[in-house]
## 1
Amino acid sequence: MRILHLSLTNFRNYARLEMDLPPGVVLLEGGNAQGKTNLLEAIYYLSRTRSPRTSVDRELVHWLALEEELPFARLSARIEKGNEASQIELSLAQGWNADAVAWRRQARVNGVAKRAQDAVGVLSVVLFLPEDIELVAGPPHLRRHYLDDTIGQIDPRYRHELGRYDKVLTQRNYLLKALRGRANGSEELAFWDQRLSEHGAYVTVRRQEVLAQLDQIVQRIHPALAGETEHLRLQYCASVHWQPSPGIAYQTVLPLEQDTSAETGVRPLLQDVTTVFAAQLREVRSRDVEQGMSTVGPHRDDVRFLVDGVDMNTFGSRGQQRTIALSIKLAELEWVTQEKSDPPVLLLDDVFSELDASRRSLVMQAIAPVQQVVVTTNDALRCDPQFVAQATLWRVCAGRLERITPSAAGAS
């Protein structure tokens, strides 16, 4: 998969951009705050219909456009999958909702209006940002969000089940707060418990399944990036316990498919997980009422990154955590390629600045099979000369792009 043409209007610091993107590596060089990351953000936005950097749509609109009577932003891309071309377009327009300013998001695929969530994954993208180190070092919700984002671009049912789960969770939490000090309410909770377990079981099971696949891939990728001195494993920590070992609060294995091998026995099916989830909700019901929140479910789950058995979330150095984050993204790249039988567009923001020469070489080897890679850098001269020679170079300055030659790279 690759982008043939990218068009931006009033997005971030791009008042207007029309850009043909060639296959292979596209290298964007420029100083800080010139628009390199904004360009990657725009491509990601077309893939996920949301930004990886903000949840406030107004921040995506060019500041001069905000002064207009009807401010708007528009992004579109013509993409190629195999031998087929398609078009995706997203627009943001300011409107009013109950006398308050609201931003309306619209999506079109091949000219046909779509709900934003139905446009997710039309353009497949894997994005690495420097702040992705927080996937390892940051709070659990970032790791849950990463899994939701990764799975959601592949699995429409997952997006639907997760959306329903979030809505039911909100309703259940509202009811739990209302039931404080009341003697009844079990029947109302039973209804929401059943709905929560039905939607939440699929989310938990799918996350577990995908993380197990990423774990298999990352075991091959990480040792090379870490100089063959570290071995990384991924663990999904589920708050819904399936036959937990004594004293172990997490680590349930919840695959979608039934496994009848002699070593593992019969593993639970999706319905079994739903049943277990509902039972645990009943067990913690009084505690949930007391606390006014739901304490069991995929919204409380986490992911652990273990290097030679040591928890890198807590004990990893910044260098180790950055390498792990990059390993995860390269594993995601391979996983999406397997799932779609087509490599996604790879976006790398300043990936080479903190890597030594051997690790930069390994990253370049990993991205070689990808049809299209967009890489940003402050100085192309820091990149491998052979890598630069094979890339298409653009200089980014104040929201404008200029095609340059390798000999001009790094010049001020």
## 2
Amino acid sequence: MAVRLREALATLPGYVGGRTVPDAIKLASNETPYPALPHVVARLTDTLRAANRYPDPASSKLTAALAERNELPVTRVVVGCGSVSLCQQLVQISTQVGDEVVYGWRAFEAYPIVAAIAGAAHTRVPLRDEVHDLAAMADAVTDATRLVFVCNPNNPTGTAVRTADLTAFLAAVPDHVLVVLDEAYHEFVTDPDVPDGRTLLDDHPNLVVLRTFSKAYGLAGLRVGYALAGDQSVATGLKQVQVPFAVSQLAQDAALACLEPEAEKELFTRVETVLAERARVGNALREMGYAVPPTQANFVWLALGERTADWAAGCAEQRVIVRPFAGEGARVTIGTPDENDQFLDAARALAE
């Protein structure tokens, strides 16, 4: 007799990560192209010696540091195993079977997965001109809605909603609906009219802001992110459903090391390099005739429609791996200047 598993598994979408191909440039996963800082690596030596011990289950030191930096009480800050893990925990604490999650589409592909795992229904609201249509998303909220995801800047388009639109949206959403502002790429934002979600927390107790150390801080392989909650009860709920010891001590100590002034200064020098390359790559693609919307992240989006799969395959033939979304477009991470040059050569050869 076969083991009986949940019927939902038969239709559960699988997460598709960026491919890694030997001897090819990987521009598919929005990672920083630079290795961890020597300062950060050195700090982890003692942690490795204590690998026989469990990590601090509350991530106490890191939580305290993040609370101080964000001017919040520690009771409203939660560290998690990457921000995607916190996405799943937020759905778990806010929905039951039959409840509803609303999000823009296309956005981060984990949203429908974490909703389905919890047994929640989900409503996709189409983007408008590659940007979240917040007015339509507010209209999509029903009595069954318990959570709304807003990815800002949006993955995979890199576009961002503006402060006035977001504040109007928050005012329109009922107070009992949790709004999750996913700001994984916040450190790459240069437009002053793109909101900093932290500044909205005190006025909106139903708001949660997600951040991560995976992108600008270069710790994608260690899995550490955090949530800033408008209300303490949400933070408490996140801790209740978190897997024990979910955040390794390596991740906690590396994140703390990244927050030290000298380390952070060097990290953000790297961010400035990425921003300069982002502008160069985007301008070059537009000059080739590609449709590339303005981006506030560490990647660019090429709206290729039905050409997408063939175009991505053409890049792979030239040893450049990008992230295609069949029938829609391709997301290309900003790499080093040399990597970007190789990508632009491939894009030029594939331009119509």
## 3
Amino acid sequence: MNYKIKQKQKKNIFREMFEWIITIAMAVVVSLFIVSNIVSMTTIKEQSMEPTLQENNRVVVNKIGYQFNEPKRGDIIILNKVSLEKGIFKNMLNEGKDILDGIKYRFTGNIEKNNLIKRVIGVYGDLIDIQDGKLYINGKVQEEEYIKEPTIAGSMLKFPVEVPKDKVFVLGDNRGNSMDSRDLGFIDISQIKGKAFYRIFPFSSFGKIK
């Protein structure tokens, strides 16, 4: 009798453990789906958007918006340096890799910077020019309150240049310390992961990103 009771107790323990594993696995999958396809939080790991965003700021990223709308001038976006295949499951795999890279960064302080944060400056059809430290869009000089130094043309593009279809032209607000379209060329829409629209840390700067 005692043997049967013990066997039953063991079965109940294994069943409960199995149910917990399934529950945790489902929670992980659902969470990964949300952060890869709908909304996520990320930590800024570069200085290229200063003074707008500082290193170690935490921001909320809208990942579903660009599935229905095109990027607009002034949007601050998270992008990958290379084009990625998109789709619900592909997005989940890519996000999983980013999460693992983030964990590695916390322990080692080193990270492979595949993801960048930049400001959209030009969209399809815009004529971009850089002259004498100033940025021109469609022939009009831009008054950019968020930068503190002149804009210098890089070697990747020959200005003036028109933004092709399905591409955007991006710059960092920290113009002297930013890898952007001056170095990478136009950014394909498929490289964009989402729009950073809200800062949640530090609390002193909590609010909408402009």
## 4
Amino acid sequence: MENESKTLDFTYVDDFVDGFILAMNEKNKEFDLSAGKGVKVSYVADLIIKLNGSGKKGFYESEIAQPQEVELNISKIKKIGYSPKISIEEGVKKTFNWYKENLNELNAKRK
């Protein structure tokens, strides 16, 4: 499989926290907690490049020890009220803007 087709199941932090709080109330149960949809990493890179106004993608060899297609089944946690609200597009935009607004402070802490 070429890297351009690799998928991951991204979850925005606010959705993760909502799901985690729901799951905490369920004793001794396990849940997959994600958006429930595999998204091409290449597509996420395209979103970031578009927000940035420039950039280019590069691909490395596929990781042997990691799955190349990830999409979790969230039907079990949906039964207790979980529903992801933030789309991949909105989540990338929010994350990009947060880093853009806080980049100077983050760089200052590294020094």
